[in-house]
Amino acid sequence: MNWLWRLKVPAKLQHFLWLCFHNALPINTCRNHCNMVASPSCTRCSSPIEDILHCLRDCPHSRELWFRLNMGHYNNFFSEFDVKVWLHEMTKSTSSILFITGVWYAWCWRNNTKNLGSTLVYSRCGAKDLFVT
Ligand SMILES: [Zn+2]
Questions:
Q1: At a CB cut-off of 8 Å and minimum separation 6, what does 118 contact?
Q2: What is the mean pLDDT of each run of 10 residues along the chain (133 residues)?
Q3: What is the 3-state secondary structure (H, E, C) of 36-48?
Q4: Whole-angstrom Cα distance, residue 109 to residue 124?
Q5: 94 C-alpha to center of ligand 1: Å?
Q6: Cα-to-centroid distance, 6 and ligand 1 (Å)
Q7: For residue 72, how far is its CA from the centre of ligand 1 (angstroms)?
Q8: Residue 1: what pLDDT?
Q9: Using an 8 Å Cβ cutoff, are 23 and 52 in contact?
Q10: Distance 96 CA to ligand 1 centre (A)
Q11: Where are the alpha helices (DSSP H) in 1-133?
């Protein structure tokens, strides 16, 4: 785990990655297990299970983010099933800073998106320059 603390990113992102690595994010499968929510499903896309990889990578909304960041071309980006391997391999890539920022942004986006009927409403999380049109 020392590799994580050597990353040249703000401490809050290191801490966030540590939470991801230890499966400690309050995603709906964990929240459901603790009786904090009625369902483990994804509130953004209604997938029956929101696990950490679904939340950060595989949800259609997160996938859109990764394609916009042009990260889908990395080998095994969307096929790796072990979140620890995925995080570690991508933080060693030449685009590690973009990846870490993208993971953080995906988490913020998930938390700031509310499903109002069929309309997804997004409120900013401070990464306003991430999407360049
Ligand atoms: Zn989803």
A1: none
A2: 87 94 92 93 92 95 90 84 93 91 91 59 47 37
A3: CCCCCCCCCCCCC
A4: 8
A5: 28
A6: 31
A7: 18
A8: 74
A9: yes
A10: 24
A11: 2-5, 11-21, 28-33, 52-53, 60-68, 83-91, 96-112
Q: Find the 112 Cα to ligand 1 centroid distance in Å.
A: 13
Task: Give 99: exposed, middle or buried? Use CB within 10 Å, 0-12, 13-18, 19+.
Answer: buried
Structure tokens at 80: 């790796």
67: left (phi over 0), alpha (psi -120 to 50) or beta: alpha
Tell me which residue of 80, 82, 84, 79 sits closest to 17, measured CA to CA: 84
Q: How far apart are CA 58 and CA 56, in angstroms?
A: 7
For tokens 């969307």, the residue is 78
What's the confidence (pLDDT) of residue 88? 92
- 3-class secondary structure, 5: helix
Question: DSSP code of 55?
Answer: I
